[in-house]
Design a protein that fits this description.
It is built from six helices and 13 strands. It has 264 residues and is of the alpha/beta class. A six-stranded mixed sheet has the order 4-5-6-7-9-8, covered by helices on one side. Strands 3-2-1-12-13 form a five-stranded mixed sheet, with no helix packed on it. It starts with a strand and ends in an 11-residue tail after the last strand.
Protein backbone atom coordinates (compact mmCIF):
# COMPACT_ATOMS: atom_id res chain seq x y z
CA UNK A 1 0.00 0.00 0.00
CA UNK A 2 1.31 3.44 -0.94
CA UNK A 3 0.01 6.34 1.17
CA UNK A 4 0.76 9.89 0.06
CA UNK A 5 0.77 12.68 2.64
CA UNK A 6 0.13 16.34 1.87
CA UNK A 7 0.21 18.93 4.63
CA UNK A 8 -0.07 22.61 5.48
CA UNK A 9 -1.72 23.58 2.22
CA UNK A 10 -3.11 26.93 3.43
CA UNK A 11 -5.69 27.38 0.67
CA UNK A 12 -6.89 30.97 0.30
CA UNK A 13 -9.93 32.37 -1.52
CA UNK A 14 -9.49 32.51 -5.29
CA UNK A 15 -6.93 35.09 -6.34
CA UNK A 16 -5.55 35.66 -2.83
CA UNK A 17 -1.92 34.85 -2.01
CA UNK A 18 -0.85 33.10 1.20
CA UNK A 19 0.79 35.75 3.43
CA UNK A 20 0.64 38.04 0.39
CA UNK A 21 3.59 36.16 -1.11
CA UNK A 22 2.87 32.58 -2.19
CA UNK A 23 0.19 31.22 -4.52
CA UNK A 24 -0.73 28.36 -2.19
CA UNK A 25 -3.76 27.45 -4.31
CA UNK A 26 -1.67 26.81 -7.42
CA UNK A 27 0.94 24.99 -5.38
CA UNK A 28 -1.74 22.64 -4.03
CA UNK A 29 -2.99 22.02 -7.56
CA UNK A 30 0.60 21.27 -8.59
CA UNK A 31 0.91 18.84 -5.67
CA UNK A 32 -2.19 16.97 -6.79
CA UNK A 33 -0.82 16.71 -10.34
CA UNK A 34 2.44 15.43 -8.86
CA UNK A 35 0.62 12.58 -7.09
CA UNK A 36 -1.51 11.73 -10.11
CA UNK A 37 1.60 11.31 -12.30
CA UNK A 38 3.86 9.31 -9.98
CA UNK A 39 5.25 6.08 -11.44
CA UNK A 40 3.50 4.22 -8.59
CA UNK A 41 0.09 5.77 -8.11
CA UNK A 42 -0.81 6.15 -4.40
CA UNK A 43 -3.66 4.07 -3.04
CA UNK A 44 -4.64 6.73 -0.54
CA UNK A 45 -3.87 10.35 0.35
CA UNK A 46 -3.68 11.82 3.86
CA UNK A 47 -4.01 15.59 4.29
CA UNK A 48 -2.66 16.39 7.74
CA UNK A 49 -4.07 19.77 8.61
CA UNK A 50 -3.98 23.48 7.88
CA UNK A 51 -5.94 22.73 4.73
CA UNK A 52 -6.97 26.39 4.62
CA UNK A 53 -5.34 29.46 6.12
CA UNK A 54 -8.05 31.29 8.07
CA UNK A 55 -10.85 28.74 8.47
CA UNK A 56 -13.13 30.77 6.19
CA UNK A 57 -16.02 29.13 4.27
CA UNK A 58 -14.78 30.72 1.03
CA UNK A 59 -11.44 29.01 1.54
CA UNK A 60 -13.10 25.64 2.12
CA UNK A 61 -15.22 26.14 -0.98
CA UNK A 62 -12.10 26.66 -3.06
CA UNK A 63 -10.36 23.76 -1.31
CA UNK A 64 -13.14 21.41 -2.39
CA UNK A 65 -12.89 22.74 -5.92
CA UNK A 66 -9.16 22.00 -5.96
CA UNK A 67 -9.68 18.57 -4.39
CA UNK A 68 -12.03 17.66 -7.24
CA UNK A 69 -8.82 17.31 -9.32
CA UNK A 70 -7.71 14.44 -7.05
CA UNK A 71 -8.92 11.04 -8.26
CA UNK A 72 -7.34 9.10 -5.37
CA UNK A 73 -9.33 8.40 -2.14
CA UNK A 74 -8.31 10.72 0.67
CA UNK A 75 -8.84 11.59 4.31
CA UNK A 76 -8.50 14.95 6.05
CA UNK A 77 -7.24 15.99 9.48
CA UNK A 78 -7.77 19.28 11.31
CA UNK A 79 -4.97 21.83 11.71
CA UNK A 80 -4.76 24.90 13.93
CA UNK A 81 -5.53 27.18 10.96
CA UNK A 82 -8.73 25.23 10.27
CA UNK A 83 -12.10 26.01 11.82
CA UNK A 84 -13.69 22.84 13.15
CA UNK A 85 -17.31 23.61 12.30
CA UNK A 86 -16.55 25.10 8.87
CA UNK A 87 -14.27 22.10 8.25
CA UNK A 88 -17.05 19.71 9.27
CA UNK A 89 -19.56 21.50 7.05
CA UNK A 90 -17.20 21.45 4.07
CA UNK A 91 -16.70 17.69 4.35
CA UNK A 92 -20.22 16.82 5.49
CA UNK A 93 -20.61 14.36 2.59
CA UNK A 94 -17.74 12.26 3.93
CA UNK A 95 -19.19 9.53 6.17
CA UNK A 96 -16.02 9.01 8.18
CA UNK A 97 -16.26 12.41 9.92
CA UNK A 98 -18.07 12.57 13.28
CA UNK A 99 -21.13 14.82 13.27
CA UNK A 100 -20.18 16.52 16.53
CA UNK A 101 -17.18 17.03 18.79
CA UNK A 102 -13.53 16.48 17.87
CA UNK A 103 -12.87 14.95 14.47
CA UNK A 104 -11.32 11.63 15.49
CA UNK A 105 -12.02 8.67 13.21
CA UNK A 106 -10.61 5.41 11.88
CA UNK A 107 -10.57 4.09 8.30
CA UNK A 108 -10.22 0.32 8.26
CA UNK A 109 -10.77 -0.52 4.58
CA UNK A 110 -7.11 -1.01 3.62
CA UNK A 111 -4.18 -3.27 4.55
CA UNK A 112 -3.10 -0.52 6.97
CA UNK A 113 -5.53 1.01 9.48
CA UNK A 114 -5.59 4.81 9.29
CA UNK A 115 -6.42 6.46 12.62
CA UNK A 116 -6.93 10.22 12.25
CA UNK A 117 -6.84 12.42 15.35
CA UNK A 118 -8.03 15.97 15.93
CA UNK A 119 -5.25 17.56 17.99
CA UNK A 120 -6.63 21.10 17.75
CA UNK A 121 -7.60 23.21 20.76
CA UNK A 122 -10.21 25.85 19.95
CA UNK A 123 -8.70 29.32 19.91
CA UNK A 124 -5.14 28.07 20.36
CA UNK A 125 -2.27 27.17 18.03
CA UNK A 126 -0.79 24.40 20.18
CA UNK A 127 -2.13 20.86 20.12
CA UNK A 128 -3.61 18.56 22.74
CA UNK A 129 -6.18 15.75 23.03
CA UNK A 130 -8.41 15.55 26.09
CA UNK A 131 -9.08 12.49 28.26
CA UNK A 132 -12.20 11.52 26.30
CA UNK A 133 -10.25 11.61 23.06
CA UNK A 134 -7.42 9.56 24.54
CA UNK A 135 -9.95 6.98 25.73
CA UNK A 136 -11.32 6.79 22.17
CA UNK A 137 -7.81 6.26 20.76
CA UNK A 138 -7.09 3.51 23.27
CA UNK A 139 -10.34 1.72 22.44
CA UNK A 140 -9.77 1.92 18.68
CA UNK A 141 -6.23 0.55 18.94
CA UNK A 142 -7.43 -2.24 21.22
CA UNK A 143 -9.93 -3.36 18.58
CA UNK A 144 -7.09 -4.87 16.54
CA UNK A 145 -3.69 -5.40 18.10
CA UNK A 146 -2.16 -7.03 15.02
CA UNK A 147 -3.18 -5.17 11.87
CA UNK A 148 -0.61 -2.43 11.06
CA UNK A 149 -1.83 1.07 11.86
CA UNK A 150 -0.82 4.63 11.08
CA UNK A 151 -1.72 7.53 13.38
CA UNK A 152 -2.27 10.89 11.65
CA UNK A 153 -2.57 14.22 13.44
CA UNK A 154 -1.49 17.79 12.80
CA UNK A 155 0.69 18.69 15.79
CA UNK A 156 3.91 16.69 16.32
CA UNK A 157 4.15 15.43 19.92
CA UNK A 158 7.93 16.00 19.98
CA UNK A 159 10.39 18.86 20.45
CA UNK A 160 11.83 20.01 17.12
CA UNK A 161 14.48 22.37 18.45
CA UNK A 162 12.95 25.26 16.48
CA UNK A 163 11.87 27.55 19.34
CA UNK A 164 9.02 29.38 17.66
CA UNK A 165 7.45 26.09 16.58
CA UNK A 166 7.94 24.16 19.80
CA UNK A 167 5.69 26.51 21.78
CA UNK A 168 2.89 25.37 19.42
CA UNK A 169 3.61 21.63 19.37
CA UNK A 170 1.38 18.94 20.88
CA UNK A 171 1.67 19.69 24.60
CA UNK A 172 1.63 17.14 27.44
CA UNK A 173 2.24 14.23 25.06
CA UNK A 174 3.02 11.55 27.66
CA UNK A 175 -0.60 10.30 28.05
CA UNK A 176 -0.76 9.74 24.28
CA UNK A 177 2.68 8.13 24.31
CA UNK A 178 1.57 5.75 27.06
CA UNK A 179 -1.30 4.51 24.87
CA UNK A 180 0.90 4.05 21.82
CA UNK A 181 3.58 2.16 23.76
CA UNK A 182 0.99 -0.55 24.40
CA UNK A 183 0.34 -0.91 20.64
CA UNK A 184 3.25 -2.60 18.88
CA UNK A 185 1.40 -2.49 15.54
CA UNK A 186 1.60 1.32 15.13
CA UNK A 187 3.92 1.76 12.15
CA UNK A 188 4.27 5.55 12.41
CA UNK A 189 2.76 8.78 13.69
CA UNK A 190 2.36 11.17 10.73
CA UNK A 191 2.16 14.91 11.43
CA UNK A 192 2.36 18.28 9.72
CA UNK A 193 2.49 21.75 11.32
CA UNK A 194 6.25 22.41 11.12
CA UNK A 195 6.38 22.84 7.30
CA UNK A 196 9.44 20.62 7.07
CA UNK A 197 10.53 16.99 7.31
CA UNK A 198 11.60 15.60 10.68
CA UNK A 199 11.93 12.11 12.16
CA UNK A 200 12.18 10.94 15.77
CA UNK A 201 11.78 7.64 17.55
CA UNK A 202 8.96 8.10 20.07
CA UNK A 203 6.55 5.97 22.12
CA UNK A 204 7.73 2.72 20.56
CA UNK A 205 7.22 3.97 17.01
CA UNK A 206 8.37 6.81 14.73
CA UNK A 207 7.10 10.37 14.45
CA UNK A 208 7.45 11.72 10.91
CA UNK A 209 6.53 15.25 9.84
CA UNK A 210 5.61 16.24 6.32
CA UNK A 211 6.88 19.31 4.46
CA UNK A 212 4.35 21.89 3.32
CA UNK A 213 3.10 22.33 -0.22
CA UNK A 214 3.48 26.10 0.30
CA UNK A 215 6.42 27.39 2.35
CA UNK A 216 9.30 25.93 4.36
CA UNK A 217 9.75 27.12 7.94
CA UNK A 218 13.39 28.07 8.54
CA UNK A 219 15.57 25.64 10.44
CA UNK A 220 16.79 27.88 13.25
CA UNK A 221 17.93 26.25 16.48
CA UNK A 222 18.97 29.33 18.51
CA UNK A 223 16.69 29.76 21.55
CA UNK A 224 16.02 33.41 20.65
CA UNK A 225 15.44 32.84 16.90
CA UNK A 226 12.67 34.90 15.32
CA UNK A 227 10.10 33.20 13.04
CA UNK A 228 11.16 32.91 9.41
CA UNK A 229 9.98 30.99 6.37
CA UNK A 230 11.15 30.46 2.81
CA UNK A 231 9.25 30.25 -0.42
CA UNK A 232 10.24 27.08 -2.21
CA UNK A 233 11.01 23.40 -1.69
CA UNK A 234 7.38 22.24 -1.77
CA UNK A 235 7.17 18.54 -1.04
CA UNK A 236 4.99 15.69 0.10
CA UNK A 237 5.70 12.33 1.69
CA UNK A 238 5.17 8.84 0.34
CA UNK A 239 4.73 6.03 2.86
CA UNK A 240 5.16 2.60 1.29
CA UNK A 241 3.97 -0.37 3.35
CA UNK A 242 4.73 -3.98 2.48
CA UNK A 243 3.58 -7.00 4.53
CA UNK A 244 7.12 -8.40 4.64
CA UNK A 245 9.24 -5.27 5.12
CA UNK A 246 6.83 -2.90 6.89
CA UNK A 247 6.76 0.85 6.31
CA UNK A 248 9.36 3.01 4.57
CA UNK A 249 8.83 6.75 4.09
CA UNK A 250 10.21 9.06 1.40
CA UNK A 251 10.16 12.81 0.88
CA UNK A 252 8.99 13.58 -2.67
CA UNK A 253 9.79 17.07 -3.98
CA UNK A 254 7.18 18.77 -6.14
CA UNK A 255 8.29 20.55 -9.29
CA UNK A 256 10.47 20.15 -12.37
CA UNK A 257 14.23 19.80 -11.82
CA UNK A 258 17.20 19.02 -14.12
CA UNK A 259 17.50 15.33 -15.05
CA UNK A 260 16.99 12.45 -15.00
CA UNK A 261 20.62 11.46 -15.50
CA UNK A 262 21.82 7.91 -16.31
CA UNK A 263 23.42 7.24 -12.91
CA UNK A 264 22.25 6.40 -9.41
Amino acid sequence: MLIAQLSDIHVRPKGVLYQGVVDSNKMFSDAIKHLEHLDHRPDFVLLTGDLVDQGDPLEYSHLLELLSELSIPYAVAMGNHDDRENFRAAFSAYPYLPQSGPLHYCIDDYPVRIVVLDSCVTGEDYGHIDAEGLSWISAVLNEDAYKPAIIALHHPPIVSGIPYMDVYRYLDAEPLAKILRRSSNVEAVLCGHVHRSMAKRWAGTMVLTCPSTTTEIALQLKPDAEPQSYSGSPACMLHLWHPESGLVSHTSYIGVYPGPYPFA
